[in-house]
Amino acid sequence: MSTVEQQLDDLKAEITSELPNDISVSSVKYEGPELVVYTRDPKKFAQQGDLVRKLASKLRKRITIRPDPSVLSRPNEAREEIMGVIPEEAGVTDLDFHADTGEVVIEAEKPGMVIGRHGSTLRDITKNVGWTPEVVRTPPIESSTVSNVRSFLKQERDERRDILEKVGRQIHREEMSDDEYVRITTLGCCREVGRASFILSTPETRILVDCGDKPGAEGEVPYLHAPEALGAGPQTIDAVVLTHAHLDHSALIPLLFKYGYDGPIYCTEPTRDLMGLLTLDYLDVAAKEGRAPPYESEQVREAIKHTIPLEYGDVTDIAPDVKLTFHNAGHILGSAVSHFHIGDGLYNVAFSGDIHYDDTRLFNGAVNDFPRVETLVLESTYGGRNDYQTDQQDSEEKLKEVINKTHEKGGKVVIPAFAVGRSQEIMLVIEEAMRSGDIPSMPVHLDGMIWEATAIHTTYPEYLRDDLRDRIFHDDENPFLAEEFNHIDAGEEERQDVADGGPCIVLSTSGMVTGGPIMSWLGHIGPDPDSTLVFVGYQAQGTLGRRIQSGWDEIPTSEVGAMGNNGGGRGTLSLNMDVETVDGFSGHADRAGLENFVKTMNPRPEKVLCVHGDERSTQDLSSALYHDYNMRTFAPKNLETFRFL
Ligand SMILES: [Zn+2]
C-alpha cells in the first residue's frame, strides 16, 4: 500500500473517531489541497454547524463534506426544495447537479443571499436535500470569458477531478529529504521589466512563480531551460504560482504545457479568467502581426483546466513542505502578494508581484501584514530615485478639466487605455464626475477588450475595494452599469456614427497605440482640432503612443492601418487634435509607495530582492532600502541563485 493510501486510511479512522456515532464516513480522498470526506449522513453533518470547522482545525487540513452518491435525492425533487430554501431576491439563474460528487452548483445574481449569514442558508440546503451546494455569481454584465471558462470546466469535469486527485497525492506525499535549505533562482525580470519568472526550491519541492513575456521583445522569454527550472524535466516542477494576469507575468504559462508540464497552477479565480482572456488575445495579436505564436489555444485551455483557484487569505498546502497564502496586491483584479511558508516554521518568503501600496478607486492598497516573513522579493518598476507620481486626486482634476474644455468646444475625448485595470479606474472617475456634475453627462464609448474586462470585474466584486464592492452588490448603484457607458460592438459602422455625432468620450485599446481599435479612432477623430487625445498610462519607448506624446502630428496612414477610414492608402494622417498627458493613474506603487510598503511591513523582512525594474530602478531601490532600514538588499541579475538557509 502506498503511503498516501495509508495516510488516507488513517485519516478516515481518525475522522470517524472524532464524529458522533450516527455520522458515517464512506471514504476520504484528496482533491488538490482539499481533503474530501464522503458521508452517508450529509444532513446530520449539516445540522452540526461547527463540525467541519472543528475537524479542519484538528487535522490542519481544508475539508469538504460531500454526500455519498448512494444517498442523494433525485435532482428534480432537490431542485424544488432548494428553491424553497433560497430567498427569491437571490435571483437564482441556474442549478446544475453533479451526481458523481453530490455537488449542486447554484448560479445566482446575489450569491450572498444563497450563502446566508455565516453560511446558514447553505447548511439549510444540505440539511434539506443532502447535496453539497457551491455558489457562483451570475455576472451583472454578461461576460463571454466567464461563461466560456465555466462551461469549459463543466465539460472537462471528469478529467479535472483526475487532475485534482493526482495533485492531491503529490501534495500529501511523504517528505523524502531531511536536508534543509531554501533557494530562489531568478529566471527573468531582473534589471529589466518583463518576463517575470522565479524558481523557489527546497530539497523536497520546486515551485515556479510567474512566467511572463517581455513586451516589445518577443523573443526574450524567461530562462526556462536552466537546470534550476525545466532543465531537469517539466515533471520536476511541483507547482506554478501566478501572481496576476498581466502578460509580463502570465503570457508563457500555457507554454509550460507544451513543454510537458501537467501540474497545478495556483492563482485567484479572476486571475484565471483574465489569463484566459489575455493569453488568447496574445495569440491573436501574434497571428495578426505574422509572428509564429509560441503555443496554441489548446495550451491555454490546458492551463485553465489545471488551475486551482485560491481566495485571499486561504492558507493552502501546495507541497509536503510548502504552504501558500495569497493577499490583495492592489494592482489589478485578482492580483496577489504570494506568501510561502516553508517547512514547519523553517522559513518564509513573500513575492510582491506587482503592487499598489495606496488605495485606488478600484482596489484597497496592498497587504503587507504577515505572520512571518524573512525574505521579500519586491517589484521595482518605479523604484528609481525620481520615480514619484502625481497624486491621484490632482490627476483626476486635470482629467476633468480636459474633458470640460473639449466638451465646450464640441469635441470628443479619446483615451487609449489598457483593457484591464486603468480603463475601469478611469470609468469610475468619469462616472463619479458625471454623477456629481463636475463634467456634463455624455456618452462614454468602450472599445476593444475593455467591455469584456469590465464584465469580469463585476463578476468578482469581492476582489474590489470595499466601498465599490458594496455599490456593486446593489444593482442600482453599480457604477459600471451607468447608462452613459456604451459597448462598441458593431465595429466600423458604429465608430463612424460616433465620429459623426456630438461630444463624447472614447476609451479604447491598445493603451500604447500599438494596434487595436484605437488606430481606427485616430483615423476618424485625429483630424478634428476640437477633439483631444489623452494619455493616462505609461507610453513605452518605440511605441506610436510615445511618438505622438512627444509631438508627432503626421502619422503615416500605414500605421493607422486598414481599420481607420483614412487608412489603406499612402500618405499621412494629420493629427490635429490636442494631445494631453494625465499621469497618476498607474497600477504600480511609485518610489514612495514601494518604500512605504517595506517601511510599514509587519514583520519587516531581513532580506529584500529588488526585481522587475530597469537596472537603475532596482539598484536605486536596493541601496535606499539598505541605507534607510538597515536590511540586506540585492538587485539580482537573471539566472542568479540565492540560498537563504
Ligand atoms: Zn502587472
TrEMBL record:
Write the protein's name: Transcription termination factor FttA
Residues binding Zn(2+) 2 = 248-249, 354, 612
Residues covered by region (KHb): 73-140
Ranges where the record places region KHa: 5-72
- SUBUNIT field: Homodimer. Interacts with RNA polymerase (RNAP), interacts with the Spt4-Spt5 complex.
Q: Which residues form the K Homology domain?
A: 98-165
Task: Give UniProt keywords alphabetically.
Answer: DNA-binding, Endonuclease, Exonuclease, Hydrolase, Metal-binding, Nuclease, RNA-binding, Transcription, Transcription regulation, Transcription termination, Zinc
Q: Which cofactor does it need?
A: Zn(2+)
Q: Which InterPro entries match?
A: aCPSF1 (IPR019975), Beta_Casp (IPR022712), KH_dom (IPR004087), KH_dom-like_a/b (IPR015946), KH_dom_type_2 (IPR004044), KH_sf_prok-type (IPR009019), MBL (IPR050698), Metallo-B-lactamas (IPR001279)
Keyword Metal-binding part of the UniProt annotation:
yes
Q: Which family does the record claim for this protein?
A: Belongs to the metallo-beta-lactamase superfamily. RNA-metabolizing metallo-beta-lactamase-like family. FttA subfamily.
The EC category is hydrolase
Q: Where is the Metallo-beta-lactamase domain?
A: 194-407
An example Gene Ontology biological process: DNA-templated transcription termination
- What are the EC numbers? 3.1.-.-
Copy out the cofactor comment. Answer: Binds 2 Zn(2+) ions, which are required for nuclease activity.
Q: Give positions of region: Metallo-beta-lactamase N-terminus.
A: 181-385
Q: State its role.
A: Terminates transcription on the whole genome. Termination is linked to FttA-mediated RNA cleavage and does not require NTP hydrolysis. Cleaves endonucleolytically at the RNA exit channel of RNA polymerase (RNAP); the 5'-3' exonuclease activity of this protein degrades the nascent RNA released from RNAP.
Renumbered residue ranges of the record's region Metallo-beta-lactamase C-terminus: 587-645
Which residues participate in Zn(2+) 1 binding?
244, 246, 331, 354
- Its Gene Ontology molecular function terms? DNA binding; RNA binding; RNA endonuclease activity; RNA exonuclease activity; zinc ion binding
> Which Pfam families does this entry report, sorted A to Z?
Beta-Casp, KH_2, KH_TffA, Lactamase_B, RMMBL
- Domain Beta-Casp span(s) in chain numbering: 423-548
Membrane-traversing stretches? none
Task: Look up keyword Transcription and say if it applies.
Answer: yes
